[in-house]
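Spend some time on this chain, tokens included, and walk me through the fold:

. . .
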Amino acid sequence: MTTEQTTSTSDPATRLVELTALDELLTTDERDVRDAVRRHCQERLLPHVAQWFEDGRIEDIRGVTRELGSLGVLGMHLEGYGCAGLSAVDYGLACLELEAVDSGLRSLVSVQGSLAMFAIHRWGSEEQKQQWLPGMAQGELIGCFGLTEPDHGSDPGAMRTRARRDGGDWVLTGRKMWITNGSVADVAIVWAQTEDGIRGFAVPTTTPGFSAPAIKHKMSLRASVTSELVLDDVRLPSDAVLPEAVGLRGPLACLNEARYGVAWGAMGAARASFESAATYALSRTQFDRPIAGFQLTQQKLVEMALAITNGTLLAHHVGRLKDRGRAQVQQVSLAKLNNVRAALEVCRSARTVLGANGISLEYPVIRHMNNLESVLTYEGTVEMHTLIVGEYLTGQQAFR
């Protein structure tokens, strides 16, 4: 078969789809879910996201959250309580399309569904589920997840936030840091040390003593709310504790849910950057020809396509395992570790194809690149995921 016979006349985005044929792995229903999320993201969110990034805020975050609730993506992989009850692969595809617009939007959905809602759904009482989950699924209520502290990120077991009993109440004191959705949340899932070990609490953000000052001057995830949580003798009733979670297994199970979505989402940022670079390379003329006609540029584009294909296949495989109840923590770590690193390299290469234009917000590449620097760190650093996989391969723990 000749090169002329196999060359598509369509745009670079379609050519990538044709080359990888990844849609062949999806059911009709999964493609419908993916297409619905893509259409909403491209039509309703993409036209505004560069301005949100430049401004450092989403102008109407509650309006955006309600739209996402109407779309059905908030807690979409959870059953009941107004949640869509879709598959892990469906959720992954939604994360990919959200992050193709911006990591901050995927973070909003991840924190809402995979951290805050999942914590209540998996570890909460029936009363807590009824109180919070329907409104969160609709986007009428926003949640955040308070685990990381100013001095304790990768070692959450050393957290300093404390919850002590006082009669029939709990009193929480401490600080959390780098909390997505914190200053706009209605409920904060806060993890604290107690006499019985680490416990989780559903904290209404209107509770006296609770505050969430926004973190300013970020150069990454600017289209996302990031806050500190301050708990100054926050008094809660006894039923605020998540009854089924004792110890680190509670928050770590939540993190594993979020990491899975990150593995898919990173491929969205990579795909958007590839499409921008490939389209630009076809239109940018140097030395009397499009730069897409030069060997070095083609090599960059091929390497990007290869990374996107490999990463999406890995995410898809873990998603299928997850839907069969067979995905292991280490497999999710492997996917998060590989895909975020690969996506960041795709963005960096795409930036070079665009040359000086690559640093302009007129194109999405520098925004995705900056965002992925945060994604590389949160939900477990490169070092932590390396050690998780390394321990599995060797049987030797190297964390300490």
User: Anything to note?
Assistant: Residues 79 and 90 are 14 Å apart (CA to CA). The longest strand covers residues 169-180. The chain is about 55% helix and 15% strand. The longest helix spans residues 249-283.
